[in-house]
Amino acid sequence: MAVFAVHFVYRWLVVSENRLLQTFNGWKICLWFSIPVWYGVTWVCTGYILCGPNENTSRFIKDNIKEVLGLEFNEYTYLGPFLYDKDENGTDVVYVAPFIGLGINSGTICSSIIIVLTFGILCYIRIKNIVVTTVNSLKMRSLQRQLFFALVIQTLVPFLLMHIPVALMFAFVFLDIDLGVYSAIVSMTIAIYPAVDPIPTLVIVENYRKTIIYWLCCCKKVAHVPGQTTIEPTRFATLPPSNLELDLEN
């Protein structure tokens, strides 16, 4: 998600011709690449320190994992927040550390959503103005319009496949609702996102679309093979009997 946020910042810097675009050249680009690294470190530390394995969580998931997946407790490891429990008297207990960890992870998701929305809208406005004010050829205006629609759809794809599924999963955890095997849907949607993301551009941009159709239809020119030789089969003819007679008497 952090990579996607940086991607949208870069898009806006390009279309707006901002001076900060120079920071993607030279050693300064390492600063941009470090942002996803810090997001990843935050998730790892939060998951391991605040949402790591403990006695209460192990007791809660042990029977459930065995029933659903058929795995014994010593056959897997886990990380995850366990927020609510009941003590021996039936009183509700809230575990603070996992609650804080889930809040931190939720904050990183929200920051990614805010960055994507903000710079996506800025790109939308900028490209729309370019399309309206462009006085170049009709081909250039058509290309700008295609890129404009591709940007809109590419903004929706990660929301449908990453942000919304993860946000819903976190919301169900906060509400103490067990999704069971349906929680695996989040992993599947995130996994297919890299394959789905370039499809809008490949379909909407005319040059890409025509090239794909060309190759799918196998419209290749047949190359002429020089020096081709044709061998005709040998034909045999029957000659008529000769009118000459051999005189053996002499």
Give a brief rundown of this model:
Keywords: Membrane, Transmembrane, Transmembrane helix. The chain is an all-alpha fold and 250 residues long.
Write up what this structure looks like.
Keywords: Membrane, Transmembrane, Transmembrane helix. GO terms for molecular function: G protein-coupled olfactory receptor activity. This is Protein CBG06303. It holds the Pfam family 7TM_GPCR_Str. The chain has about 250 residues and is mostly helical. It has one domain (about 1-215). The protein is built from eight helices and two strands; from the N terminus they run H-H-H-E-E-H-H-H-H-H.
Helix and strand pattern? HHHEEHHHHH
Largest sheet at a glance?
2 strands, antiparallel
The figure for the number of domains is: 1
Oligomeric form of this entry? single chain
Identify low-pLDDT runs: 227-250
Report the strand count.
2
Strand content: under 5%
CA-based gyration radius: 34 Å
Query: What would you call the structural class?
Result: mainly alpha
Helix content: 55-70%
What's the pLDDT, averaged over the residues? 77
Number of helices: 8
The span between the termini is: 114 Å
Strand order of the largest sheet: 1-2
- Which geometry do the CA atoms define? elongated
Pfam family, one: 7TM_GPCR_Str
GO molecular function, one term: G protein-coupled olfactory receptor activity
Keywords: Membrane, Transmembrane, Transmembrane helix
Transmembrane segments: 29-50, 99-127, 147-175, 181-205
